[in-house]
UniProtKB/TrEMBL annotation, chain A:
Residues 226-395 form the Hydantoinase A/oxoprolinase domain. This is Hydantoinase/oxoprolinase-like protein. Coiled coil: none annotated. Residues 1-33 are annotated as: Disordered. GO terms for molecular function: hydrolase activity. It comes from the Bacteria. The lineage of its organism: Bacteria, Bacillati, Actinomycetota, Actinomycetes, Streptosporangiales. Signal peptide: none annotated. Gene3D superfamilies: 3.30.420.40. Residues 36-205 form the Hydantoinase/oxoprolinase N-terminal domain. Residues 1-12 have a biased composition (Basic residues). It comes from Murinocardiopsis flavida.
Automatic annotation (TrEMBL), chain B:
It comes from Murinocardiopsis flavida. InterPro entries: S-Me-THD-like_C, S-Me-THD_C_sf, S-Me-THD_N, S-Me-THD_N_sf. It comes from the Bacteria. Residues 167-349 form the S-Me-THD-like C-terminal domain. This is DUF917 domain-containing protein. Residues 9-164 form the S-Me-THD N-terminal domain. Pfam families: S-Me-THD_C, S-Me-THD_N.
Length: 561, 373
């Protein structure tokens, strides 16, 4: 959340053109239907932008996020289209980054009941599915679970043959309704056929309208984490359907009947609507990914550190070759451990509203948050904040340069030392993310961006791009489409493993909506496997490419989870 | 003193086992969930000291064997601990009364507690390493010269191999072969008779791991608390400025360089590592060497960082402490000294009590706290 946004929002509640929204009627009309509309749902605001064919921002807006999320999206789309005027009919693509899935899991709302099938018995029988889940989430999601024969060893040796009758028996014996099925086989990331077969059986048993989520499509090696993500995905089908329907309705109501709709994923790429319906869990974490990618793009940097300074925290990430760097640590969602790719984000307690201890100058840990404009000293309040520290020391640039503050000497000292601490903390964080590369530019966005000095030690050139406050929506609008896949193989067969992972990643990117002619492998990570008896490596490949031409919606696989 | 391990102790046991993993031993997350589950289901297990063993007791020494990367995907079968117990008792001709972990460091220090609960046996407050090591030869029983002629291996599908090997070197070779055939993961067990236990195990390590884990989880300043509980020295607190990895002879080899911050500013330290952290060097001087223990922890949380997860820029503290005296014997160093890992250097006994390591301030770095979202 950015400082100053609250003010802006207050003045423009209820839609309509907002400050920051710009249209330049002087530019020549581009080819019909080349505009892209990006929407990003944040905790406080829902932002929307429109980019033209050269990726220039031609309109933008911020609207408050409402409780059911969809209303904010509706308002943001309506507002940004109004800014566009006549050119609204040129919007050919709508890209949405949304928090619906996260909210559903965290709030335990609108979740489907899932039948969970693990393939691999007798292996993994000591760890029942959903081990370690919060009890109430488990109660909301679990229709029943079974660990059934199937699965493979790392070298492809079947652990046990698949038993179709056991699958039928399990599905037939579940009490109560089953909204979806999740299937997770041991080493299915390398040997996917059994999971696919179980999907056919489940469709035959339960009907084709009961969606089936396969772990091979969801996550990487790490059985329990991948299974967890697969089960969450299955539980989210209902909400995903609701969101996509709502978005299509908004798009239709706004007369954008020809526009294709895409969803932002957690790795900074897009997926086509049909894909999003099947893999809703992949939308989780798309906000930070969009923000990092959008900020870097606006600054013109392909490789950079990005810091988004809000009211409560500064969120730092890294963009490498135009994509957010992914974290190597497992991530929890609503108390559930998963292992799918998420951007490597470092969040620190440095924000415009961060409280400063008047006697010691210590920071936070809390923030006045959205009350900054009434609580902070600069605005006549009684709480010393980092914004006051910046104003007092004359370091608040940009729009905040006109603010002023007079304080007593002790308070002044506290504020000065607080700002020094904040700068040190930012410096530490930048160094931690930059891996020592001093030449990486630092892209600063967010309402509290003035807290980052132009001469931050450890950082390269500091860039403050225009429209940085809607970087997340820009990131959504300009994203490519991607896919990732993994393989484990021996060193001797390294090339084979790389080729196989690359091929699978390319296939996934195309399935997600990428142009088959332009998709390329953009990243290969090889890591040695410790304590392995043979020299073994783990290969992870990522492919990405621009969206396929318009009309691609009909060329992607039909929504048939 | 006899005490119980309950499901509430498992988080601390896991955090402590990770510290004793000295960078290796595999991630403790999966075994933590499984063990907590087993203790909830079967009830607490009794933690028995070596002194509490009687002449009738037979200890079953258990561990998982294989690659942790495989181990997070192909998890053990619920039947494996029972299979191992049955086959070991049958081959040994005696009943087992307690489970001992072969290796307290990493995932192998956690799993056996859950297996004991499942099997209705006690847990012996001891292990075979006092840390993590990569090979079956590197166990206290081998150092003490206790013959370990009988080993039972079990894979996830139910295959069992009962091996009677002539010595630990052959055991290691055959275990590897079985492990490969088992998909790079199996469980192993061997009997240890009560009369052979004294002097042939590292005592007190299970209780110690739980205590150390509590220092990590409960202390306001985890790093100093951890150092005090372990009797360890904090060699440096700083940030990682280089991580180099290479693969040689089937081992991942590497080194990590840490630049001091705060009171350690202007100091550099290098840690040589394979699957575990093995040597610490400063200005060409060997400060610590295997089998003494070296663990890198997050300076903020005190949690151990495994060799696989070391990254540039991490804020770490390097802790070192002495190994059990058994490892410092001539045979102990032959089996697990620096030369056993291919380093052409002599073992330098580490003394955490040396005044040169006295520093009260290390480990607390105000202003670097930051949570990864």
């Amino acid at each position: 959340m950015g400082i100053g946004r609250a003010r802006q929002r207050a003045g423009h509640r209820g839609g309509g053109p907002v400050s920051g929204g710009t249209v330049d009627p002087g530019t020549p009309r581009p080819v019909q239907g080349d505009l892209r509309l990006g929407v990003d749902v944040g905790g406080t605001n829902t932002d929307a932008v429109v980019l033209d064919s050269s990726n220039a921002v031609i309109a933008c807006t911020k609207q408050p996020t409402d409780d059911d999320v969809t209303g904010g999206i509706r308002a943001a789309i309506a507002a940004v289209l109004e800014c566009l005027g006549e050119r609204r009919h040129e919007v050919a693509r709508v890209m949405l980054g949304t928090t619906h899935a996260t909210n559903a899991i965290v709030g335990r709302r609108d979740l489907g009941r899932v039948a969970v099938i693990r393939l691999g018995a007798p292996a993994a029988t000591g760890f029942p599915p959903l081990t370690g889940w919060p009890e109430e989430l488990k109660a909301a999601v679990l229709a029943g679970s079974a660990v059934l024969p199937g699965g493979h060893m790392v070298d492809g040796m079947p652990i046990s043959p698949l038993d179709p009758d056991a699958v039928r028996e399990f599905l037939g014996g579940i009490d109560g309704p089953v909204d979806a099925v999740a299937v997770c086989g041991i080493f299915s990331t390398s040997f996917p056929e059994q999971e696919t077969r179980v999907k056919e059986i489940a469709h035959a048993e339960l009907g084709r309208d009961v969606p089936v989520s396969l772990s091979q499509d969801i996550g990487a090696i790490g059985l329990l984490e991948r299974e967890n993500a697969t089960v969450l995905n299955a539980a989210l089908y209902g909400i995903a359907r609701k969101v996509t329907d709502a978005l299509l309705t908004v798009v239709a109501e706004e007369g954008l009947t020809d526009a294709s709709v895409y969803f932002a994923q957690n790795d900074g790429t897009l997926m086509a609507l049909d894909f999003a319906v099947r893999y809703p869990v992949l939308t989780i974490g798309s906000g930070p990914a969009n923000s990092i990618r959008g900020a870097a793009y606006l600054s013109g940097a392909e490789n950079a550190i990005v810091v988004d300074v809000g009211g409560t925290t500064s969120d730092l990430g890294v963009v490498v070759g135009g994509f957010p760097r992914e974290s190597t640590l497992p991530r929890e969602i609503g108390g559930v451990r998963t292992n799918f790719r998420m951007p490597d984000i470092l969040s620190i307690g440095v924000g415009g509203g961060t409280r400063v201890d008047p006697s010691t100058g210590r920071l936070g840990p809390d923030s006045v948050g959205h009350r900054l404009h009434t609580a902070a000293l600069t605005f006549g309040g009684a709480t010393a904040t980092l914004t006051d520290a910046a104003v007092h020391t004359g370091r608040a640039g940009g729009a905040s340069a006109e603010w002023s503050l007079t304080v007593e000497r002790d308070m002044g000292r506290a504020l000065e030392s607080a700002l020094v601490r904040a700068h040190e903390w930012l410096q530490d964080s930048v160094e931690r993310l930059s891996h020592g590369k001093q030449d990486l530019p630092l892209v600063v966005v967010g309402g509290g961006g003035f807290l980052v000095p132009d001469d931050l030690p450890g950082a390269g050139t500091v860039l403050r791009p225009e429209h940085g406050d809607v970087a997340n929506a820009v990131g959504a609008a300009m994203s490519l489409v991607g896919g990732r896949a993994q393989q484990i193989g021996t060193f001797e067969e390294r090339d084979k493993a790389v080729a196989k992972a690359s091929r699978a990643a390319v296939e996934r990117a195309i399935e997600a909506g990428a142009d088959p002619l332009k998709v390329a492998v953009i990243d290969i990570i090889e890591s040695p496997v410790s304590y392995s008896t043979q020299h073994t490596i783990r290969v992870s490949a990522k492919a990405a490419g621009p969206l396929a031409r318009l009309g691609s919606r009909t060329t992607t696989p039909a929504a048939n989870p | 003193m006899t005490r119980e391990i309950t499901s509430d102790d498992v988080a601390a046991l896991a955090a402590g086992a990770a510290i004793f993993g000295t960078g290796g031993g595999g991630a403790v997350t999966t075994s933590r969930f499984g063990t907590a589950d087993a203790l909830r289901k079967h009830g607490p297990v009794r933690l028995r000291t070596v002194a509490e063993l009687t002449g009738q007791d037979m200890v079953i020494v258990m561990s998982g064997i294989g690659a942790p990367t495989v181990g997070i995907e192909m998890l053990p079968s619920a039947a494996q601990p029972e299979t191992l117990l049955r086959e070991t008792e049958r081959a040994a001709g005696r009943r087992a009364t307690a489970v001992m972990a072969t290796e307290i460091g990493g995932t192998n220090g956690v799993g056996p507690v859950g297996w004991a609960a499942q099997l209705g046996l006690d847990v012996l407050d001891a292990d075979g390493m006092g840390r993590a090591f990569p090979e079956a030869t590197m166990v206290a029983m081998n150092v003490a010269g206790v013959p370990r002629r009988l080993t039972v291996l079990s894979d996830v599908v139910g295959n069992v191999t009962v091996m009677r090997t002539i010595d630990a070197t052959w055991l290691e070779r055959h275990v590897r072969a079985f492990s490969v055939a088992s998909g790079s993961l199996c469980l192993g067990a061997s009997p240890l008779y009560a009369e052979d236990v004294p002097g042939a195990v590292i005592e007190g390590t299970v209780g110690r791991a739980i205590e150390v884990g509590h220092a990590v989880l409960d202390a306001a300043e985890p790093v100093p608390a951890l150092a005090e509980t372990l009797g360890a020295a904090v060699l440096i607190s700083g940030k990682i400025i280089d991580v180099a990895r290479r693969t040689e002879g089937g081992f991942v080899r590497g080194s990590v360089t840490i630049a001091g911050t705060g009171t350690d500013r202007d100091r550099l330290l290098r840690v040589e590592l394979q699957n575990e952290n093995l040597i610490v060097l400063a200005d060409g001087e060997v400060l610590v060497s295997v089998p003494d223990l070296i663990t890198l922890v997050d300076s903020e949380t005190g949690h151990a960082i495994s060799t696989e997860l070391l990254r540039f820029g991490q804020r770490v503290s390097v802790l070192a402490w002495s190994c059990d005296p058994l490892w410092r014997t001539e045979r102990g160093l032959d089996i697990a000294g620096p030369r056993a890992f291919g380093y052409d250097i002599d073992y330098v006994p580490f003394d955490a009590g040396d005044p040169r390591w006295a520093s009260a301030e290390r480990g607390s770095e105000p202003g670097t706290a930051g949570a990864v979202q």
